């Protein structure tokens, strides 16, 4: 290791490029996402590709309960704003986060109506749209590019894994070539692209995660979100885990943090790290509780990066 090298000063006090720090610099304060369930489904659930969904997926685990109770988008925004204003009174800007299922899976007229409804709220200044890479036809990307001339638009693409064997095993219904293609087509339109990763899926290995990181490093991604695999009730993975726990080896907090670091080391310094994990309500989780609140992850990551004397981009090799 080159001991004379140091983390880029643009990381400020950290050893990785934290999205929240970047937001503060760019927007002069906190940017808060207001989750929306706009009633979408996804091709892996409606029979187009499958009916049972990805093996790990039960969207209820990540959907705030008030979204299931309120169907109207503006009501959901009002409820979300009231909650976030109480929790983060310093927030300056709010984005509508189309989060549940695949939020570009529909014809353009429907998408336009839903997105414009959210943008019509006076306190919503932009959109975050979560989707699968195979739900991004040219016509949709062209429209999002047009929209992004008017308001900030962040496209969150579910990558989950860069390993085709892992994607096949979790019944994802697309391969990594599809992800690569979607990211490149979105980037050509200058959309802000966040990739969503799930670490610890069956058949993923430390070596395949590093190979995946090298692939991601060559793509025009703006930000990444890391999540640890948690087994959620009502999923195929939960059935598999109950029947044969050894068939779903789970990461410890320590091995998860080390896996995140192994990936970070190969990423270019400019990729912003937007999330380090997630919390599923205990009543919906089958896998054991780590007993660590999500808010502690950034400090734990920084401490471990320091201990390993490394940082984001240390092993990044531009091609
Ligand atoms: S993870 Fe996304 S793509 Fe997979 S079943 Fe759930 S909503 Fe559909």
Structure characterization notes:
This protein has 319 residues and is of the alpha/beta class. It has a single domain (9-307), classed as pyruvate-formate lyase- activating enzyme (Alpha-Beta Horseshoe). The chain is 36% helix and 14% strand. The chain is built from 11 helices and 7 strands. α4 links the parallel β2 (93-98) and β3 (124-131). The model has no long low-confidence stretch (mean pLDDT 93). Iron/sulfur cluster (SF4) binds next to loops.
Q: Report on the biggest sheet.
A: 7 strands, parallel
Tally of separate helices: 11
> How would you state the average pLDDT, rounded?
93
Broad shape: globular
- Whole-Å distance between the termini? 20 Å
Low-confidence stretches: none
Question: Which sequence of SSEs, written as H and E, runs from N to C?
Answer: HEHHEHEHEHHEHEHHEH
Please state the second-level CATH architecture.
Alpha-Beta Horseshoe
Number of domains: 1
CATH topology name, in short, is pyruvate-formate lyase- activating enzyme
* Residues in helix, %: 25-40%
């Amino acid at each position: 290791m080159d001991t004379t090298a140091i983390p880029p000063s643009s990381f400020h006090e950290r050893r990785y490029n934290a999205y929240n720090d970047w937001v503060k610099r760019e927007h002069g304060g906190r940017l808060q996402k207001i989750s929306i369930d706009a009633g979408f489904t996804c091709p892996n659930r409606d029979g187009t590709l499958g009916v049972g969904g990805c093996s790990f997926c039960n969207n209820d685990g990540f959907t705030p309960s008030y979204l299931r109770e309120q169907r109207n988008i503006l009501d959901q925004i009002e409820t979300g704003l009231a909650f976030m204003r109480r929790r983060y009174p310093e927030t300056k800007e709010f984005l509508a986060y189309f989060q549940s299922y695949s939020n570009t899976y529909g014809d353009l007229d429907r998408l336009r109506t839903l997105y414009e409804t959210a943008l019509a709220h006076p306190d919503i200044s932009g959109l975050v749209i979560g989707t699968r890479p195979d739900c991004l036809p040219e016509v949709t990307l062209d429209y999002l590019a047009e929209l992004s001339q008017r308001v900030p638009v962040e496209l969150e693409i579910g990558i989950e894994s860069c390993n085709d064997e892992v994607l096949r095993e979790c019944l994802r219904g697309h391969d990594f070539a599809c992800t690569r293609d979607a990211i490149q087509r979105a980037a050509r339109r200058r959309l802000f692209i966040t990739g969503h990763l799930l670490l610890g899926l069956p058949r993923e290995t430390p070596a395949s995660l590093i190979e995946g990181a090298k692939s991601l490093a060559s793509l025009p991604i703006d930000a990444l979100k890391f999540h640890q695999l948690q087994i959620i009730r009502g999923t195929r993975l939960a059935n598999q885990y109950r029947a044969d726990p050894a068939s779903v080896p789970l990461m410890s907090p320590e091995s998860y943090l080390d896996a995140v670091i192994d990936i970070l080391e190969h990423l270019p310094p400019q990729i912003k790290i937007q999330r380090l994990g997630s919390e599923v309500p205990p009543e919906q989780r089958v896998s054991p509780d780590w007993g660590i609140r999500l808010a502690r992850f950034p400090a734990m990551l920084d401490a471990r990066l320091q201990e390993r004397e490394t940082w984001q981009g240390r092993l990044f090799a531009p091609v």
